[in-house]
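Worked example 2:
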Amino acid sequence: MILHALEHAFLDTVRMVPFLLAAFLALEALEHYSNNYMNRVLGKVGKAGPAVGAVFGCVPQCGFSVAAANLYSGGVITPGTLLAVFLSTSDEAVLILLGNPGSGPVIARLLLGKVLIGIGFGYLADLVLRNKKEEKHIEDLCRSCGCSDHGGILKPALKHTVRLTAYILVFTFVLNVLLEWIGMNTLTAILGRDTWFQPLLTALLGLIPNCASSILITELYLAGGLSFAAAMSGLCAGAGVGLAVLFKTNRPMKENLGILALLYVISAAVGLLLELVL
Protein backbone atom coordinates (compact mmCIF):
# COMPACT_ATOMS: atom_id res chain seq x y z
CA MET A 1 0.00 0.00 0.00
CA ILE A 2 2.83 2.37 0.90
CA LEU A 3 4.70 1.67 -2.35
CA HIS A 4 1.53 2.21 -4.37
CA ALA A 5 0.85 5.49 -2.58
CA LEU A 6 4.45 6.61 -3.12
CA GLU A 7 4.29 5.78 -6.83
CA HIS A 8 1.12 7.83 -7.32
CA ALA A 9 2.50 10.68 -5.23
CA PHE A 10 5.65 10.77 -7.36
CA LEU A 11 3.73 10.74 -10.66
CA ASP A 12 1.28 13.41 -9.46
CA THR A 13 4.13 15.62 -8.24
CA VAL A 14 6.21 15.29 -11.41
CA ARG A 15 3.28 16.65 -13.46
CA MET A 16 3.26 19.76 -11.26
CA VAL A 17 6.92 20.69 -11.76
CA PRO A 18 6.60 22.54 -15.13
CA PHE A 19 3.75 24.66 -13.77
CA LEU A 20 5.61 25.44 -10.57
CA LEU A 21 8.72 26.48 -12.47
CA ALA A 22 6.73 28.60 -14.93
CA ALA A 23 4.91 30.38 -12.08
CA PHE A 24 8.11 31.13 -10.18
CA LEU A 25 9.89 32.30 -13.33
CA ALA A 26 6.99 34.69 -13.93
CA LEU A 27 7.17 35.96 -10.36
CA GLU A 28 10.93 36.47 -10.51
CA ALA A 29 10.68 38.21 -13.89
CA LEU A 30 8.01 40.56 -12.52
CA GLU A 31 10.15 41.32 -9.50
CA HIS A 32 13.25 42.16 -11.52
CA TYR A 33 12.00 43.60 -14.78
CA SER A 34 8.62 45.12 -14.04
CA ASN A 35 8.01 48.68 -15.17
CA ASN A 36 5.07 51.03 -15.65
CA TYR A 37 4.13 49.47 -18.99
CA MET A 38 4.05 45.96 -17.54
CA ASN A 39 2.02 47.16 -14.58
CA ARG A 40 -0.56 48.67 -16.95
CA VAL A 41 -0.73 45.41 -18.91
CA LEU A 42 -1.18 43.38 -15.72
CA GLY A 43 -3.89 45.80 -14.63
CA LYS A 44 -5.82 45.19 -17.83
CA VAL A 45 -5.38 41.43 -17.61
CA GLY A 46 -6.46 41.60 -13.97
CA LYS A 47 -9.89 42.87 -14.93
CA ALA A 48 -10.39 39.86 -17.18
CA GLY A 49 -8.70 37.57 -14.64
CA PRO A 50 -11.73 35.55 -13.46
CA ALA A 51 -12.81 34.81 -17.06
CA VAL A 52 -9.30 33.86 -18.18
CA GLY A 53 -8.68 31.87 -15.00
CA ALA A 54 -11.93 29.93 -15.31
CA VAL A 55 -11.16 28.94 -18.91
CA PHE A 56 -7.59 27.84 -18.18
CA GLY A 57 -8.64 26.12 -14.96
CA CYS A 58 -10.88 23.64 -16.74
CA VAL A 59 -7.91 22.11 -18.60
CA PRO A 60 -7.79 18.54 -17.22
CA GLN A 61 -5.00 18.75 -14.67
CA CYS A 62 -4.40 20.82 -11.54
CA GLY A 63 -1.23 22.57 -12.71
CA PHE A 64 -3.02 25.84 -13.29
CA SER A 65 -4.38 25.86 -9.74
CA VAL A 66 -0.81 25.43 -8.48
CA ALA A 67 0.40 28.33 -10.65
CA ALA A 68 -2.57 30.47 -9.59
CA ALA A 69 -1.84 29.86 -5.90
CA ASN A 70 1.74 31.02 -6.41
CA LEU A 71 0.73 34.08 -8.42
CA TYR A 72 -1.88 35.04 -5.82
CA SER A 73 0.69 34.66 -3.03
CA GLY A 74 2.91 37.04 -4.98
CA GLY A 75 0.14 39.59 -5.37
CA VAL A 76 -0.08 39.20 -9.15
CA ILE A 77 -3.70 38.02 -9.47
CA THR A 78 -6.87 38.96 -7.58
CA PRO A 79 -8.82 36.81 -5.08
CA GLY A 80 -11.58 36.45 -7.68
CA THR A 81 -9.15 35.12 -10.28
CA LEU A 82 -7.77 32.59 -7.81
CA LEU A 83 -11.28 31.49 -6.84
CA ALA A 84 -12.29 31.19 -10.52
CA VAL A 85 -9.33 28.90 -11.20
CA PHE A 86 -10.04 26.78 -8.13
CA LEU A 87 -13.75 26.39 -8.96
CA SER A 88 -13.14 25.48 -12.62
CA THR A 89 -10.20 23.12 -12.04
CA SER A 90 -11.28 19.78 -13.44
CA ASP A 91 -8.19 17.81 -12.47
CA GLU A 92 -8.40 14.17 -13.65
CA ALA A 93 -12.20 14.04 -13.93
CA VAL A 94 -12.39 14.83 -17.65
CA LEU A 95 -9.73 12.26 -18.53
CA ILE A 96 -11.61 9.55 -16.64
CA LEU A 97 -14.91 10.50 -18.28
CA LEU A 98 -13.27 10.43 -21.72
CA GLY A 99 -12.46 6.78 -21.12
CA ASN A 100 -16.17 5.97 -20.86
CA PRO A 101 -18.17 5.81 -24.12
CA GLY A 102 -21.12 8.16 -24.30
CA SER A 103 -19.79 10.58 -21.70
CA GLY A 104 -19.64 13.51 -24.14
CA PRO A 105 -22.81 15.27 -22.86
CA VAL A 106 -21.68 14.82 -19.24
CA ILE A 107 -18.26 16.31 -20.01
CA ALA A 108 -19.87 19.26 -21.80
CA ARG A 109 -22.23 19.95 -18.88
CA LEU A 110 -19.40 19.59 -16.37
CA LEU A 111 -16.95 21.91 -18.11
CA LEU A 112 -19.52 24.52 -19.11
CA GLY A 113 -20.99 24.53 -15.61
CA LYS A 114 -17.61 24.85 -13.90
CA VAL A 115 -16.47 27.66 -16.22
CA LEU A 116 -19.69 29.63 -15.69
CA ILE A 117 -19.53 29.07 -11.92
CA GLY A 118 -15.88 30.15 -11.86
CA ILE A 119 -16.52 33.30 -13.88
CA GLY A 120 -19.64 34.31 -11.95
CA PHE A 121 -18.31 33.81 -8.45
CA GLY A 122 -14.85 35.05 -9.44
CA TYR A 123 -16.17 38.46 -10.48
CA LEU A 124 -18.50 38.54 -7.49
CA ALA A 125 -15.56 37.88 -5.16
CA ASP A 126 -13.58 40.73 -6.70
CA LEU A 127 -16.53 43.06 -6.24
CA VAL A 128 -17.12 42.11 -2.62
CA LEU A 129 -13.61 41.40 -1.36
CA ARG A 130 -10.93 43.99 -1.10
CA ASN A 131 -7.64 42.94 -2.58
CA LYS A 132 -5.47 42.60 0.51
CA LYS A 133 -2.37 42.19 -1.62
CA GLU A 134 -2.17 45.89 -2.49
CA GLU A 135 0.89 46.46 -0.34
CA LYS A 136 2.45 43.04 -0.77
CA HIS A 137 5.46 42.71 -3.02
CA ILE A 138 6.54 39.65 -4.96
CA GLU A 139 9.90 39.64 -3.21
CA ASP A 140 8.10 38.76 0.05
CA LEU A 141 8.20 35.17 -1.17
CA CYS A 142 12.01 35.31 -1.10
CA ARG A 143 12.51 36.57 2.44
CA SER A 144 12.73 33.14 4.00
CA CYS A 145 15.14 31.65 1.47
CA GLY A 146 17.68 34.46 1.09
CA CYS A 147 17.42 34.65 -2.70
CA SER A 148 16.51 38.33 -2.94
CA ASP A 149 20.09 39.54 -3.44
CA HIS A 150 20.74 37.88 -6.79
CA GLY A 151 20.89 39.22 -10.30
CA GLY A 152 19.10 36.54 -12.30
CA ILE A 153 15.74 34.81 -12.26
CA LEU A 154 16.51 31.16 -13.07
CA LYS A 155 18.41 30.19 -9.91
CA PRO A 156 15.85 31.51 -7.39
CA ALA A 157 12.97 30.14 -9.48
CA LEU A 158 14.59 26.70 -9.45
CA LYS A 159 15.21 26.99 -5.71
CA HIS A 160 11.56 27.79 -5.01
CA THR A 161 10.42 25.02 -7.35
CA VAL A 162 12.58 22.35 -5.67
CA ARG A 163 11.40 23.35 -2.19
CA LEU A 164 7.73 23.39 -3.09
CA THR A 165 8.02 20.16 -5.10
CA ALA A 166 9.42 18.39 -2.04
CA TYR A 167 6.55 19.75 0.06
CA ILE A 168 3.94 18.58 -2.47
CA LEU A 169 5.53 15.11 -2.73
CA VAL A 170 5.40 14.54 1.03
CA PHE A 171 1.90 16.01 1.35
CA THR A 172 0.53 13.94 -1.54
CA PHE A 173 2.14 10.75 -0.27
CA VAL A 174 0.54 11.12 3.18
CA LEU A 175 -2.89 11.78 1.65
CA ASN A 176 -2.60 8.82 -0.71
CA VAL A 177 -1.78 6.52 2.21
CA LEU A 178 -4.87 7.77 4.07
CA LEU A 179 -7.12 7.28 1.05
CA GLU A 180 -5.72 3.77 0.44
CA TRP A 181 -6.28 2.91 4.09
CA ILE A 182 -9.88 4.18 4.22
CA GLY A 183 -10.90 2.53 0.92
CA MET A 184 -13.55 3.35 -1.68
CA ASN A 185 -16.23 1.08 -0.17
CA THR A 186 -16.03 2.86 3.17
CA LEU A 187 -16.22 6.26 1.51
CA THR A 188 -19.23 5.18 -0.54
CA ALA A 189 -21.03 4.10 2.62
CA ILE A 190 -20.19 7.36 4.36
CA LEU A 191 -21.37 9.53 1.45
CA GLY A 192 -24.59 7.56 1.06
CA ARG A 193 -26.71 7.42 -2.07
CA ASP A 194 -29.66 9.44 -3.36
CA THR A 195 -29.64 11.74 -0.33
CA TRP A 196 -30.13 15.50 -0.49
CA PHE A 197 -27.09 16.20 1.69
CA GLN A 198 -24.67 14.38 -0.64
CA PRO A 199 -23.34 17.67 -2.11
CA LEU A 200 -22.39 18.83 1.38
CA LEU A 201 -20.27 15.72 1.90
CA THR A 202 -18.75 15.55 -1.59
CA ALA A 203 -17.74 19.22 -1.32
CA LEU A 204 -15.78 18.29 1.79
CA LEU A 205 -14.23 15.36 -0.05
CA GLY A 206 -13.30 17.64 -2.94
CA LEU A 207 -11.37 19.95 -0.62
CA ILE A 208 -8.76 17.24 -0.09
CA PRO A 209 -5.76 18.84 -1.87
CA ASN A 210 -4.92 15.86 -4.03
CA CYS A 211 -5.76 14.59 -7.51
CA ALA A 212 -7.06 11.39 -5.90
CA SER A 213 -10.19 13.17 -4.64
CA SER A 214 -11.36 14.09 -8.16
CA ILE A 215 -10.64 10.55 -9.36
CA LEU A 216 -12.65 9.11 -6.47
CA ILE A 217 -15.60 11.45 -7.03
CA THR A 218 -15.69 10.71 -10.76
CA GLU A 219 -15.46 6.96 -10.24
CA LEU A 220 -18.26 7.06 -7.68
CA TYR A 221 -20.41 9.07 -10.10
CA LEU A 222 -19.79 6.61 -12.94
CA ALA A 223 -20.60 3.70 -10.61
CA GLY A 224 -23.93 5.31 -9.71
CA GLY A 225 -22.96 6.13 -6.15
CA LEU A 226 -23.21 9.89 -6.66
CA SER A 227 -25.71 12.12 -8.43
CA PHE A 228 -24.49 14.62 -11.03
CA ALA A 229 -25.22 17.44 -8.58
CA ALA A 230 -23.10 15.81 -5.87
CA ALA A 231 -20.29 15.14 -8.36
CA MET A 232 -20.39 18.77 -9.54
CA SER A 233 -20.24 19.94 -5.93
CA GLY A 234 -17.18 17.83 -5.19
CA LEU A 235 -15.38 18.70 -8.41
CA CYS A 236 -15.99 22.44 -7.95
CA ALA A 237 -14.42 22.23 -4.50
CA GLY A 238 -11.53 20.17 -5.82
CA ALA A 239 -8.65 22.52 -6.64
CA GLY A 240 -6.09 19.75 -6.67
CA VAL A 241 -2.75 20.52 -5.05
CA GLY A 242 -3.45 24.23 -5.48
CA LEU A 243 -4.95 24.48 -1.99
CA ALA A 244 -1.90 22.87 -0.40
CA VAL A 245 0.37 25.29 -2.26
CA LEU A 246 -1.77 28.24 -1.17
CA PHE A 247 -1.47 27.27 2.50
CA LYS A 248 2.27 26.79 2.06
CA THR A 249 3.10 30.05 0.28
CA ASN A 250 0.46 32.60 1.25
CA ARG A 251 0.10 34.64 4.42
CA PRO A 252 -1.81 35.58 6.53
CA MET A 253 -3.25 32.16 7.28
CA LYS A 254 -6.72 33.55 8.01
CA GLU A 255 -6.86 34.69 4.40
CA ASN A 256 -6.26 31.11 3.24
CA LEU A 257 -8.96 29.85 5.60
CA GLY A 258 -11.37 32.43 4.18
CA ILE A 259 -10.69 31.26 0.62
CA LEU A 260 -11.14 27.65 1.73
CA ALA A 261 -14.47 28.49 3.38
CA LEU A 262 -15.67 30.37 0.29
CA LEU A 263 -14.72 27.47 -1.95
CA TYR A 264 -16.68 25.03 0.19
CA VAL A 265 -19.78 27.21 0.60
CA ILE A 266 -20.00 27.98 -3.13
CA SER A 267 -19.45 24.35 -4.15
CA ALA A 268 -21.96 22.98 -1.64
CA ALA A 269 -24.55 25.62 -2.62
CA VAL A 270 -24.13 24.81 -6.32
CA GLY A 271 -24.65 21.11 -5.60
CA LEU A 272 -27.75 21.70 -3.48
CA LEU A 273 -29.22 23.99 -6.14
CA LEU A 274 -28.61 21.39 -8.85
CA GLU A 275 -30.24 18.71 -6.68
CA LEU A 276 -33.40 20.85 -6.61
CA VAL A 277 -33.35 21.70 -10.32
CA LEU A 278 -32.30 18.38 -11.87
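The chain is about 75% helix and 0% strand. The first helix runs from residue 2 to 33.
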